[in-house]
Amino acid sequence: MSPPASRAHWSTRLAFILAAAGSAVGLGNIWKFPYITGMNGGGAFVAVYLVCIAAVGLPIFIAELYIGQKAQANVVRAFEATHRPGSPWRFVGWMGLLSAILILSFYSVVGGWVLDFVYRSLTNQFAGHSDEEIKGVLGTLFSSPGRQLFWHALFMGGTVAIVLQGLKEGLERWNRILMPALFVLLLLLLGRALFLPGIGKALTFLFVPDASRLTAAGVLEAVGHSFFTLSLGMGAIITYGSYLGSREALTRTALSVAALDTLIALTAGTVIFSVVFTYGLDAGSGPTLMFQTLPMLFARLPGGYLVSLAFFLLVTFAALTSAISLLEVMVTYWVEQHGKPRKQTALVLGALVYGMGILSALSTNLLAHVKLLGHTFFDLADKTTSSLTLPLGGALISIFFGWVLGPQAAEEVVGPRFKWAARPLMWTARVLAPLAVAVVLVRGLREW
Ligand code: PHE
Questions:
Q1: pLDDT at 115 exceeding the cut of 80
Q2: pLDDT (average), residues 347-360
Q3: CATH number at residue 436
Q4: Could you tell me the pLDDT band of residue 13, with boundaries at 50, 70 and 90?
Q5: How many Å lie between the centroid of ligand 1 and the Cα of residue 278?
Q6: Does pLDDT of 6 surpass 60?
Q7: What is the pLDDT of residue 170?
Q8: Rounded CA gap, 172 and 166, in Å?
Q9: pLDDT, tens digit, 9 for 90 and up, residues 29-62
Q10: What is the best residue among 113, 322, 329 to mutate for testing ligand 1's pocket, by most ligand atoms within 8 Å of CB?
Q11: Which of ligand 1's atoms lies nearest the C-alpha of 325?
Q12: How far is the CA of 322 from the centre of ligand 1 (A)?
């Protein structure tokens, strides 16, 4: 099927790789990975996560790119275009849309927290302040509904504003400079962390597995996070792949994005845990972890004011490029499938997701006591996606690739030079990846 003439395409291959990396690298790496690792006892959790990235995440990343590129269509139509019209597989696309809405609703709240920390850095509320004062900063945000909603609105507004402009101008300009800048800043922080007395304990905590500290729910969280962090299982990568003209180097793109994503998560984790073990903090303190540890480090650094400002600005950017990809999944669908104008669609969907996110923004204050299935709205949106719809979506995409598209797709993906890799890839997609996810889902959900 030839692509509709009106469909935009990435201007260069680099722009596409950077955008895919921009989707993958975000709060999942810098905020979520360290705190869930801390809550799940460290090394064994990290080991499961790493195995999942390589054995499950990577093949599914390749499959999603392939499906999107081949279909040249939104997440729902992609399954019909590569299978047949009316294919029941389009259900996987709908589940992807649901995941995108749920994730963006709480993701934009955390994006708002980061914006608050940009403001706090700007107004010098970390450098020269005591640890106790710094620890309390996030608490004052949490207890203020108005402040939460304000930053949440600003973050969502920024996301919509960029998506409004369409693919090209929106994404490509900034990605090229700011993504590498974030990486360099993290490496500089790592350089400082290596001289903290807690570094040894941090490395042991992260990289020496202690299986006794891992539960079935923890394994599910590691598997789920490998999907979350690579933006898999919900169509973001299918959608980005659909804006790719020729089938160039899908495998190489998947490999480099997964490697970069993992590297950034491990670097952020090492810095954060070296602070934790140097200043005797609680590794399992939860979602507040990044927001309490790093400012303590900044407060002690020469030039800490600027470092803190640069860091939170760059994290804002990383979060924005992920949020954009989430909104883009929905916008591409509604524009193509229902013929709506792009601008109007982005505005309406942004407002809708913002509205849903209000429930998450108020989960730390006015609605803190409202529990559904034992969770606040914030936790529920997070858990339902990471521990259910993303792994399920990923497993189904894998099965679709392996069984429906089959050997020919696998061969096309790896190309003539790596022909030997086609069969292993196909069987991983057919059996290994779905089976691993199924086992983990069934066991983990029982403890949920
Ligand atoms: N991968 C992003 C992160 O790590 C989050 C995300 C999930 C983005 C799913 C798009 C789709 O922050």
A1: yes
A2: 98
A3: 1.20.1740
A4: confident
A5: 30
A6: yes
A7: 53
A8: 11
A9: 999 999 999 999 999 999 999 999 999 999 999 9
A10: 322
A11: 10
A12: 5
pLDDT tens digits along 190-249: 999 999 999 999 999 999 999 999 999 999 999 999 999 999 999 999 999 999 887 767
Residues lining ligand 1, judged by CB closer than 6 Å?
23-24, 26-29, 103, 228-229, 231, 234, 236, 322, 325-326
Which residue range is the domain that position 36 belongs to?
A: 13-397+429-446
Q: Look at the chain and report how many structural domains it folds into.
A: 1
pLDDT reported for residue 2: 44
Give, for ligand 1, the residue of 229, 232, 330, 385 to mutate: max count of ligand atoms closer than 8 Å to Cβ: 229
Closest CA to 307 of 401, 181, 157: 181
Query: What mean pLDDT, rounded, does the chain reach?
Result: 93
The answer to whether residue 405 is domain-embedded is no
Atom of ligand 1 nearest to the CA of 24: 1
Is 185 a member of any domain?
A: yes
Does some domain include residue 304?
A: yes
- The residue contributing the CA closest to ligand 1 atom 11 is 231
